[in-house]
């Protein structure tokens, strides 16, 4: 189902049929990622992108309809890269809480390393809200079904997984800002312990803490 | 301390000295909030703002240096409004967890009601990252000192409050997106219970859930 919809009609950018065409399209995407990340979507021009890619300006229109079309493709690209990175960082068979820990640390490193791509996703909210919304709604769907499996395996308790997923994504997002984008070192082990401690136990006072 | 720095030199927009001047400045700020919120900072022009405020275009420059200056002032304004709203929504003497619950619900209603102002804050990241960073860093400082007081009163356990505050802000932010901006009804009681249940207990399996 998901695959059908991803490869369906929404994918509006023009697919090249040759390897050389695909290479040019990739160069344009990389150049757009850099231009949008550095100066922002609105300040970057199509000629900034073609100059960055080392191609003539007209070449752009063989692959994309307009700037918005490149942006939409970059946001989808970020979604795929993030999923691939997470799948790679989280060894199969890990319990849910260990998987959350690995995923959180990996996400924050990813934000620090791919800051341009990350900013492009965030800016899409101001270019076309639907692109941004689809990005998070799609991610949430996959996340919920992963948590459902963990509930079935009694790795976590049951609850309103939809709400939880937005809590977890918001957590990752803001820690990504703070420890990925602004303090470029990621989370250290103690900080990651604190996050997981929060996710595991919440902030309610425990009996051992009572005076 | 906080007050000194807020009223200090960073406040770069030009302060009118008469009540009439202040009224005009407020009209310009409201018009900018609407213009930026509706079409985005980059697409909105200064003449959109003066037209919305019903003043001549030159009047703008009596109060603001440029579009960026209005944006910075709107972000500070959002910070003040949010603090005032939260102070009003959270009765004094509430325990920390009840205060978190009231604050979370109030924040999501606020995002739904003040969507333009909220979008302006988010877009500031792409206009001047420092404005955006200051907004969250300032908010985090106040939040941390509120949590410190709750730790002293044994209302919550001790921990890495800095990390926790970014978890809590990220949670509020994403729930604000999902349940404030996109599904304009806010959180219902059951959803709010789920959030608080998460914050209170975390997602770890509890002994009562073991098979």
Provide structural commentary.
The structure is a homodimer of 211-residue chains. By secondary structure, the first copy, chain A, is an all-alpha fold. Chain A has a domain at 67-202: Tetracycline Repressor, domain 2. Chain A is built from 10 helices and no strands. In chain A, helix 5 (67-89) packs parallel to helix 8, helix 6 runs parallel beside helix 9 (161-182) and helix 6 crosses helix 10. Chain A is elongated. Mean pLDDT of chain A is 88; it is low at 1-11.
List keywords for this structure.
homodimer, 211 residues, mainly alpha, Tetracycline Repressor, domain 2, 10 helices, 72% helix, 0% strand
Q: What would CATH call the homologous superfamily of the domain at 67-202 in chain A? A: Tetracycline Repressor, domain 2
Helix content of chain A: over 70%
Main structural class of chain A:
mainly alpha
Quaternary organisation: homodimer
The end-to-end distance of chain A, rounded to whole angstroms, is 54 Å
Biggest β-sheet strands, sense, barrel of chain A: none
Question: Mind telling me the CATH class of the domain at 67-202 in chain A?
Answer: Mainly Alpha
Instruction: Give me the CATH architecture of the domain at 67-202 in chain A, please.
Output: Orthogonal Bundle
Give the overall shape of chain A.
Answer: elongated
Please tally the β strands of chain A and state the result.
Answer: 0
Strand content of chain A: under 5%
Please tell me the overall pLDDT of chain A: 88
Spans of chain A of at least 5 consecutive residues whose pLDDT stays below 50 are: 1-11
**Order of H and E elements of chain A:** HHHHHHHHHH
Q: What count of helical segments of chain A does DSSP give? A: 10
Radius of gyration of chain A: 20 Å
């Amino acid at each position: 189902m998901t695959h059908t919809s991803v490869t369906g009609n929404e994918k509006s950018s023009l697919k090249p049929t040759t390897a050389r065409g695909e290479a040019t399209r990739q160069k344009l995407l990389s150049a757009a990622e850099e231009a949008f990340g550095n100066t922002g979507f609105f300040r970057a021009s199509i000629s900034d992108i073609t100059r960055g890619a080392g191609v003539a300006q007209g070449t752009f229109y063989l692959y994309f309809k307009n700037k918005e079309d490149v942006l939409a493709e970059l946001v989808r690209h970020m979604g795929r890269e993030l999923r691939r990175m997470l799948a790679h960082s989280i060894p199969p068979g890990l319990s849910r809480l260990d998987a959350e820990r690995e995923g959180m640390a990996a996400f924050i490193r990813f934000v620090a390393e791919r800051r341009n791509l990350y900013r492009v996703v965030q800016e899409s909210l101001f270019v076309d809200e639907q692109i941004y919304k689809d990005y998070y709604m799609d991610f949430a769907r996959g996340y919920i079904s992963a948590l459902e499996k963990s509930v079935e395996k009694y790795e976590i308790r049951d609850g309103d997984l939809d709400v939880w997923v937005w809590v977890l994504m918001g957590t990752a997002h803001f820690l990504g800002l703070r420890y990925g984008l602004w303090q470029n070192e990621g989370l250290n082990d103690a900080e990651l312990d604190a996050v997981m401690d929060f996710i595991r136990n919440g902030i309610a006072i425990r009996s051992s803490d009572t005076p």
